[in-house]
Amino acid sequence: MNEIDTKSADDLIEKKMRQIMERKERREKRKKEKKENAGKPTTIGTKLPQPTSASEQQTFSVGDTVRMRGLTTVGTIESLQGKEATVVFGDVRTKVKASRLEHTTKKPESTQPATFAISRETRQTIDSHKLNFHQDLDVRGMRGDEALNAVQHFIDDAILVGMPRVRILHGKGNGILRQLELTGFDYQKCHHMFVTHGHTDHVLGVIWVMRKVADLMNKGKYEGEFHIYCHDVVREMLLTMTKMTLKKKDFARVGTSIFLHELKDGSVVNFEGIQLTAFDILSTKAKQFGYELRFADGLRFTCLGDEPYNEHDEVYAKGADWLLAEAFCKYGDRDKFKPYEKNHSTVKEASELAEKLGVKNLVLYHTEDKSIATRKQAYTAEAKEYYHGNVFVPDDLDVIELG
To answer: CA-CA distance, 64 to 102, in Å (whole number)?
Structure first.
């Protein structure tokens, strides 16, 4: 289980996701206000406040002189189609929702140097993006960091040109679907998934699994429901990204057969004889949850996420049968890999923690990927200097028997 340092890409994409979600919330709020005001009767001498929908009640005709709300540039309506109008501003022709227009008594000026220059440059930029934009992005064969940068710019361009749906081609390569196939993973037996946080190297993999499960459902090859447990930020990210990237028939499964459950700190979920407790690890970066699993036979398995331990988690980790802890590198290599700058721990610190908490088995993961050939032996040797239980440093696709 390796890490590519994608913090800057993660932050940029998370920022973009937040912007998308904020726009979505504003649209939903306007729809709700419009619906509420539509059912209220008006009385003589009383005017209902309509801060956002006043222009929507105006009627427009071809030839009307209008301007966009909040702007001064005056144009003329060239054509109308449904709720959209084609408006000519000088030499620039653009489509805009009628709800964003308002009548004006001003006449379009024959020349508007400053405004025209800015509008033309902006329009040319958007037109150029539209001309060269393709709804499909193929990241097959790319390295992890290359794929993340490509996805980031792709989403930026999609938003710029107003593209409602896009598709990211992942293929098999060395991705999660390919890895799951190599393990003999049976999707039909997988009905529950937990997502710790919203970094792209986590949520993109979840999207591929959601797509695969939805496809199997639509082909009649998956029985039952698929449940994903996560905190609010991850839930909104998954909803937004799947709406943009999945086929309509696949996305239709979200909310009907595929369920995204929002958990809070301390939330408890029971399924198939297992009790899952989610807990906030109090990350200093993106919001992140860890989890504790309690099995019917009393066995306890705790995942601390991929950041250093916080005492808030002690009640879930102390005395655990299995502890999953991140260890980015050996303590002796800390100057080379700089784990503290990435908000990570070393093997020494993770091992000392396991000893202090009295756990029986320690699994070290989320490591650097420069020493794979010697990692298992070297990490195990360092861990045993500070911890007296069983140590596991798994390579990708290794199978660990819990007992």
So the answer is: 10
Alpha-carbon torsion 176, 181, 182, 184, what sign? positive
Per-residue confidence in pLDDT tens, the chain, 403 aa = 444 444 555 555 666 666 666 766 777 777 777 677 665 544 433 333 344 444 446 889 999 999 887 677 788 999 998 888 888 877 667 777 888 889 998 887 654 444 444 456 666 666 676 677 777 777 665 555 566 667 767 777 777 667 777 777 655 445 666 777 888 889 999 999 999 998 877 788 899 899 999 999 999 999 999 999 999 999 999 998 898 889 999 999 999 999 999 999 999 999 999 999 999 999 988 899 999 999 999 999 999 999 999 999 999 999 999 999 999 999 999 999 999 999 999 999 999 999 999 999 999 999 998 999 999 999 999 999 999 999 999 998 899 999 8
Kindly provide the residue ranges of all beta strands, DSSP E only, lying in 35-134, ordered along the sequence. 65-68, 74-81, 84-89, 92-97, 101-103
- Cβ distance 55 to 100 under 8 Å? yes
The C-alpha atoms of residue 82 and residue 97 are separated, in whole angstroms, by: 9
Spatial contact of 207 and 170, defined as CB atoms under 8 Å apart:
no
Residue 223 is given by DSSP the state: -
Q: Around Cβ 370, how many Cβ atoms within 10 Å? A: 12
Round to whole Å and give the CA distance between 396 and 122. Answer: 48
Tokens 């993106």 belong to which residue?
286
Q: Which amino acid is at 234?
A: V
Q: How far apart are CA 115 and CA 109, in angstroms?
A: 11
- Alpha-carbon span 198 to 109, nearest angstrom: 49
Instruction: Please tell me the distance from the alpha carbon of residue 134 to that of residue 151, in angstroms, as a whole number.
Output: 13
H-helix or E-strand containing 204? Answer: helix 200-218
**DSSP 8-state code for residue 305:** T
Which residues, other chains included, contact 213 with Cβ-Cβ below 8 Å and sequence gap of 6+? 187, 190, 222, 226, 253, 258
End-to-end CA distance of the chain: 22
Question: Rounded to whole angstroms, how far apart are CA atoms 77 and 339?
Answer: 59
